Amino acid sequence: MSKKRIRSNVKQVLNEPVLKTLVKQSMLTEIQLETLIIDLLVEDSYGAHIPYDDKAAFRSRRGTRARGVSRGAFNRTLNQARRNLTRCLSTMLLLAYLGLFEFAIFRPFEEIAARIGNYRHIRDILGGKVQLSTEDIESYRAAERMILAALDELTSSLALKTDLSKKK
Which of 109, 69, 144, 72 is closest to 100 using CA atoms? Predict the structure, then answer.
């Protein structure tokens, strides 16, 4: 895969409305996510280890049209992203350890995760088509709207309360 294609793919993914909403609510900044995606995508695409100097060249610079950052900036951001991701996953494991995933408040998260899986499947199918029909585009947009609406609902202050607490 060419450098231009990798940059284009990363930029396209980062501009998806569902991803933008999820990033805003996550522990990762957009720059950290971009760096993490580049770190994983570049080596998978080339099938070989790529030096961090080269990976840093893929990263965008905010506020400029230039591409790339220094290797040090790339590595610092990558370490921040990995640390935040580890903390997030550790929190999920902590909740599992405490048995809290068995509570009904987590069901909407499972449902959204399933919807996101369907959305990605639709995106993958449509990505393989040369020309998209109006029906294809509407199907994609409808799935996107459903996910965004569900995410909005999850961000309400009542989302992580039990049914008994919501009634008070």
Answer: 109
What does the pLDDT look like over 38-58, one tens digit per residue?
888 877 877 778 888 888 888
Q: Count the helix, strand and coil residues of the chain and give each as a percent rounded to the nearest 5.
A: 75, 0, 25
Beta pairing partners, 67: 60
pTM of the model: 0.76
Residue 63 CB-density burial (10 A; 0-12 exposed, 13-18 middle, 19+ buried): exposed
Q: Is the pLDDT of residue 114 over 70?
A: yes
**Measured distance between the N- and C-terminal CA atoms of the chain, rounded to whole angstroms:** 56
- Which residues fall within 8 angstroms of residue 71, CB to CB, at 6 or more apart? 52, 53, 56
Give the integer Cα–Cα distance in Å for 42 and 58: 9
